[in-house]
Design a protein that fits this description.
With about 350 residues, the protein is of the alpha+beta class. The protein folds into two domains: about 10-135, Heat Shock Protein 90 (2-Layer Sandwich), CATH 3.30.565; about 145-310 and about 320-355, Phosphatase 2c, domain 1, CATH 3.60.40. Helices cover about 25% and strands about 25% of the residues. The chain contains seven helices and 15 strands. The chain has helices at about 20-35, 40-60, 90-95, 110-115, 190-205, 210-220, 330-340, and strands at about 10-15, 65-70, 75-80, 115-125, 125-135, 145-150, 170-175, 180-185, 230-235, 240-245, 250-255, 260, 280-285, 290-295, 350-355. Strands 1-2-3-5-4 form a five-stranded antiparallel β-sheet, with helices on both faces. Strands 6-15-14-11-12 form a five-stranded antiparallel β-sheet, with helices on one face. A five-stranded antiparallel β-sheet has the order 7-8-9-10-13, with helices on one face. Helix 2 runs antiparallel to helix 4 (about 110-115) and helix 5 (about 190-205) crosses helix 6. The longest helix has 19 residues, at about 40-60. It starts with 10 loop residues before the first strand and ends with a strand. This is SpoIIE family protein phosphatase.
Amino acid sequence: MTAATPPRLTRQVRIDHHSATHLALVAARELAHALRLPGAGPERAAVLASELATNLDKHAHDGALYLQPLPLGGGLELVAVDRGPGIPDVHAALADGFSTSGTLGGGLGAVRRIADQLTIHSDPGGTLVRATLAAPDAGPDTAPPPGAVCLPTGAEGADGADPAACGDAFAVRDTPAGRTVAVIDALGHGPEAERAALAALAAFDADPALPLRTLLERQHRALRRTRGAAIALLRLTERAAEFAAVGNVRLVRFGLGRPRAGPPGPPGIVGYTLPRLTVHRLPRVPGETLLLHTDGIHPDWSGHPARLDPPAEPPTSPVPLPPTSPVPLPPALLAPFLAHRHRRPRDDATAVAIPT
């Protein structure tokens, strides 16, 4: 499959029966073709999906595979998520020739060899495995990557159907003004909501380096003939995080302690009633994650800490953290974790997690 434009939505394949493994394989290959990964890229993506999905099918509970472009572009990612029983020994599972003996973790040696990056967190309550494939011209990625999901209403299921129209949208852009994020939640669902979300996204992408207040005003003008949207904008400058929002897109500061809510956006609808805009400046805290999500993620999620304890280190780190030191999930895993555990299936759902 070749797409005229790269896909922007997350594809979810629930691994709830054996044939779902084939659906995941096909979806990964199609995504790689749509992103124009050259050479063996589509087949590498298919093998990654097959290994991860087979592992979920044989050993995990409530498993799903999330497939999408990397939030900053330049490749794709596959994230396998489940609700247990966990991988008893992650480092052993990454070894070639590892035999699972009936436990989760089979095939991870092959995934490690094929993927450009591999991140794993596991405990008896669940496992997350993120594997990426970078485009040949992608630059080196030395900073912790952001994480994101954007799921349309009714996206769950392993029927292989293409995602429906989605009234949510997001963008993560590196600009001279700093890394800038837009999260958009258009009113309602379906094609008209998608039209509003895409109009807001286009207005943002025309010049994402503009001041946040100016960006919201530009999006307000662009949405006047649509049903309107709730929008949140976040920018990381050298010393601070700037935040401006209208409506119910939520900001959560997620660090080593309990998640804390950021400043709320005032009531209003971008495109209809634009309230007085305030740009908040928040200090940048090393190790903190700034999470933006629409109301398709249940707001009560922060009452259930998104942690897996003890964490399994990526294969590049030879020394695991001690079990007595629980840590939050890294941003690249936090968004799919929330989508899998705390999503409202009757609403479009978007979550974007940005490391500071």
